[in-house]
Amino acid sequence: MVVGADKQDKGWARFTRRWKPENREDSPLWPALSTLLSLGFVQEHPRLFLSPYLVWRFPRDLPVRDPLVVIRDNVPLRNEPSPRAEVVGYLSFEIVERLRPSQQLDDLIRWFYVRTSTGKSGYLDAKDAISPAMPRAQFGMRDGRWLLIALEGPEE
Is domain 67-130 classified as CATH 2.40.30.170? Predict the structure, then answer.
């Protein structure tokens, strides 16, 4: 079970210290797995699936400093961080550059200020994009059962 990128991060003891699977209330494991499962997989081998597909297939040579991946179709890019702000464009499954840390306003929506590959800047609802630095997992089929083989968390 992989916990982090380094070889010394392997093993069940390190996994339980990092992810705290026994603590259903405060464990980061259960929300991470829920997100991973909802974002889909890529089949690497007949019995090996990697999630989320967009992290495993993210271009390693991309010159973007702080990338985000838009995970939906026709997501509005707004001129201000508000659901009522003017739409300056629409994004679909694109890689954008995050220009500032996320903002949370009076409502419950978090916003990313981003720039597209064509140079257009605006605000994106945080529910519509994820960072490729998010956790990633490997699932395998063994003896007719699905197993979590490895789980790498974001760097802390």
Answer: no
